[in-house]
Each structure stands twice: as structure tokens, then as C-alpha cells.
Specification:
By secondary structure, the chain is mainly alpha-helical. It is 44% helix and 7% strand. A two-stranded antiparallel ribbon has the order 1-2. The chain is elongated. The N and C termini lie far apart (75 Å).
Length: 158
């Protein structure tokens, strides 16, 4: 070989390949927000370049992930994207938090997902969802949100 590296040695090939790619643009880094890895191709590091190649453009990935999320919500809970966004506009129905929101449904109706769609109660955060499950199983010991949890479950009884 021209550079003295064995053609069949994968580590040597990868290292030599990166050196040859980076020698044309020394000091240049990936253009994806927050990434500081060295430039590989098309203004991206090796990781982002291969992700771009396998999934489509890097900019499309968050949109595609959102669409996948809403498709999963629609399949599991029979709730459209517009309905979900309407239910989630004020945050968690119990504590008002906007982090980690998920659909809550009555497990006495449908134990597993996908549900029938009629037992969907609302949107709650992860911690409130766990507290609701503990309340329904009779093991809730959380005193600060106990009243709100009870009111939420009673409000959405079938």
C-alpha cells in the first residue's frame, strides 16, 4: 500500500482513513449543534454523517421522532396528535408539570396496550402516573399530592 498500512487491517484502515479525511480540513469540527467531534464528511463528524446516511437528513430526525411518537400514541391509546396536544397544553393534569408527559388510562378497563380508547383519562407526568398506579393498588404513601390524585381519579371514573 502507498501509506504502508495493511489493506486488511481494519483499525489501521480506519485510522488512516480519518487522517486522510481530516488532513484537508485541519481543525474543522462537526456542524451539528453541540457536537465537537472532528470533521468527517459533508460538514459532519463520522457519527452524524452515518446517521444522516441511514435515516435521512439530520434535521429531519427530531421531526421523524415526533411523528413516530404520535403514531405510537394513536395506536396504543386511540388519541390523535391534535387531541394529545390539546390535553397536554396545560401540562400534567395532576401537578401541572410539563416534563415526561404520557397518556393515562384506566387499567381496570384495559390492562395492556393497545387500549380500547374509551378508558383514556388524560395526560400526566411520569411521577404522577406512578402515584396513580400506587393509589389504585392501595399502596400510596405520598401525602402532598394525595388529594389531587384522588380528585383526578374520581373526576375520570367511568
Amino acid at each position: 500500500m502507498k501509506d504502508g498500512k495493511d489493506h486488511y487491517c481494519q483499525p489501521c484502515r480506519s485510522e488512516a482513513g480519518m487522517e486522510s479525511v481530516n488532513r484537508h480540513k485541519p481543525g474543522k469540527s462537526c456542524n451539528v449543534f453541540g457536537c465537537r467531534n472532528p470533521h468527517y464528511a459533508k460538514d459532519m463528524c463520522k457519527f452524524h454523517y452515518h446517521r444522516d446516511w441511514s435515516r435521512g437528513t439530520v434535521e429531519d430526525v427530531p421531526t421523524r421522532l415526533d411523528n413516530d411518537r404520535f403514531a405510537k400514541i394513536k395506536y396504543n391509546y386511540k388519541v390523535t396528535k391534535e387531541s394529545y396536544l390539546d390535553m397536554a397544553k396545560n401540562g400534567c393534569n395532576v401537578c401541572g408539570s410539563f416534563s415526561g408527559l404520557s397518556i393515562d388510562h384506566d387499567h381496570s378497563c384495559c390492562q395492556l396496550t393497545p387500549t380500547c380508547g374509551g378508558c383514556t383519562r388524560g395526560v400526566v407526568c411520569r411521577s404522577c402516573n406512578q402515584l396513580i398506579a400506587k393509589y389504585e393498588n392501595g399502596i400510596m404513601r405520598h401525602k402532598t399530592l394525595e388529594r389531587e390524585i384522588i380528585n383526578y381519579v374520581i373526576k375520570h371514573e367511568r
